[in-house]
């Protein structure tokens, strides 16, 4: 199966079911009371991180996900069933971005972690909810709200404890194979590693017996100059390095390791400066190809970077035990590291837009209305405050719901806001595509 670490999908949560407008009907009961049930909630789209998946490839072929709608409410107070949630299983380390805003909406770093990326709509309330001492037989119900729709970009950032960083042909694959149980394809030419390869490294005692400690090691495609700008395999490998707790700079002693390390760090700095804050060490590889004096001299030069330097030979096994033990000793605590490196996720709740009232002189009539008398000459547009979202939920029963909505607007301060802005009796108030006549009742005047 091919490795895929970026995938664009479209998700649509289910709509909420409408509430029922119903009255009880029974033998010998000509006029029963309202008994409309509530609509069910729409299903949500949920990302779930699971084990055993190392690529987004399993999702290829299905780019659109739609959750079921909530069922309508029914008479006799029967509530509509909720739409079933849809789970999208992704590898641990998957980050989800909203394509339109660019914001992070999910960052899954633990097995079993879940995140709603498209929330289902709310079910509408049945007419049984709206009875009062003065409203015995409400002939309106509440409509369900639409489910959230999103275009989402999924990015897989491998959750490996240790990442091997180096230029092509530096010996990273050989080092991974020598340290772990992985068996990467190894060849003597650049860009051998086209996909990240993971290996598991166990800690052993002096006799070679495994201890109850291990870490995962990632061999990531080699860097080329300009990788931070997306050249070559640049962004693909840099994305995965961002998840590792410890970096190992793998340098070929037969080339110019000092200059290569400068270039490697420059690429990391250009992509994400915080990567240079990671715990790191240097594995000076292929020491079997040079004299000991030259290897020691290069080691001394590299020490000026302030990182531990270990001379190793992946081919002959030289220094691998020391390298393995150094990694175990230097690895930061997983939980503390995760807290420090967690991406900022967009909050679930969106703050409501503040209420504003705007006067528009001699506006042309448009839309449908609750109450409109005569040709409107003074129109007040209402924005924010959640009023448009509320009024839309009664669009099918606007005339019957007028009194109820008027009381809601009054309680929530809309009429006071209009009065302070200069509205007069008979002016037209416009909320979205709906219009009604402003009135200043006795209680308002008394206030």
TrEMBL record:
Belongs to the TRAFAC class OBG-HflX-like GTPase superfamily. OBG GTPase family. Residues 357-440 form the OCT domain. Keywords: Cytoplasm, GTP-binding, Hydrolase, Magnesium, Metal-binding, Nucleotide-binding. The keyword Cytoplasm applies. Gene3D superfamilies: GTP-binding protein OBG, C-terminal domain, GTP1/OBG domain, P-loop containing nucleotide triphosphate hydrolases. This is GTPase Obg. Pfam families: DUF1967, GTP1_OBG, MMR_HSR1. HAMAP family: GTPase_Obg. The keyword Nucleotidyltransferase does not apply. Its cofactor is Mg(2+). PANTHER family: DEVELOPMENTALLY REGULATED GTP-BINDING PROTEIN-RELATED, MITOCHONDRIAL RIBOSOME-ASSOCIATED GTPASE 2. An essential GTPase which binds GTP, GDP and possibly (p)ppGpp with moderate affinity, with high nucleotide exchange rates and a fairly low GTP hydrolysis rate. Plays a role in control of the cell cycle, stress response, ribosome biogenesis and in those bacteria that undergo differentiation, in morphogenesis control. Monomer. It is found in: Cytoplasm. Residues 160-332 form the OBG-type G domain. Residues 1-159 form the Obg domain. GTP binds at residues 166-173, 191-195, 219-222, 285-288, 313-315. Its EC number is 3.6.5.-. PROSITE patterns: G_OBG (PS51710), GTP1_OBG (PS00905), OBG (PS51883), OCT (PS51881). Mg(2+) binds at residues 173, 193.
């Amino acid at each position: 199966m091919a490795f895929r670490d970026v995938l664009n999908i479209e998700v649509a949560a289910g709509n909420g079911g409408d509430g029922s407008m119903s009255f009880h009907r029974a033998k010998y009961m000509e006029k029963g009371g309202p008994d409309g049930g509530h609509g069910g909630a729409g299903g949500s789209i949920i990302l779930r991180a699971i084990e055993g998946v190392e690529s987004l490839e399993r999702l290829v072929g299905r780019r659109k996900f739609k959750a079921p709608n909530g069922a309508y409410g029914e008479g006799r107070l029967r509530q509509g069933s909720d739409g079933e949630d849809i789970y999208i299983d992704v590898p641990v380390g998957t980050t989800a971005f909203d394509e339109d805003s660019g914001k992070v909406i999910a960052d899954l770093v633990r097995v079993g972690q879940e995140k709603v990326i498209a929330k289902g709509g709310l079910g509408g309330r049945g007419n049984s909810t709206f009875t009062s001492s003065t409203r015995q037989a409400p002939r309106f119900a509440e409509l369900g709200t639409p489910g959230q729709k999103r275009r989402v970009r999924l990015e897989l950032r491998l959750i490996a404890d240790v990442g091997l960083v180096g230029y092509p042909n530096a010996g990273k694959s050989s080092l991974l194979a020598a340290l772990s149980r992985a068996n990467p394809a190894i060849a003597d030419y650049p860009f051998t590693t086209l996909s990240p390869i993971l290996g598991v490294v166990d800690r052993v005692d002096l006799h070679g017996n495994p201890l109850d400690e291990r870490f995962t090691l990632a061999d990531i495609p080699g860097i080329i100059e300009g990788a931070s700008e997306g050249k070559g395999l640049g962004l693909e490998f840099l994305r995965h390095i961002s998840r590792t707790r410890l970096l190992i700079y793998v340098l070929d002693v037969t080339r110019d390791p000092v200059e290569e390390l400068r270039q490697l760090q420059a690429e990391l700095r250009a992509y994400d400066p915080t990567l240079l804050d990671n715990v790191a060490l240097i594995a000076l590889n292929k020491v079997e190809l040079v004299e000991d004096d030259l290897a020691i001299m290069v080691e001394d030069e590299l020490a000026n970077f302030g990182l531990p330097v270990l001379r190793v030979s992946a081919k002959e096994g030289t220094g691998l035990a020391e390298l393995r033990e150094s990694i175990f000793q230097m690895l930061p605590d997983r939980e503390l590291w995760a807290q420090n490196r967690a991406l900022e996720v967009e909050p679930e709740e969106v703050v409501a837009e503040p209420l504003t009232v705007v006067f528009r002189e001699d506006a042309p009539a448009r839309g449908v209305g609750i109450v409109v008398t005569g040709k409107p000459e003074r129109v007040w547009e209402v924005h924010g405050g959640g009023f448009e979202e509320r009024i839309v939920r009664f669009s099918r029963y606007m005339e019957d719901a007028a009194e109820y909505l008027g009381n809601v607007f009054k309680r929530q301060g809309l009429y006071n806001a209009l009065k302070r802005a200069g509205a007069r009796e008979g002016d037209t108030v416009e909320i979205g595509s709906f219009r009604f006549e402003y009135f200043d009742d006795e209680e308002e005047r008394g206030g």
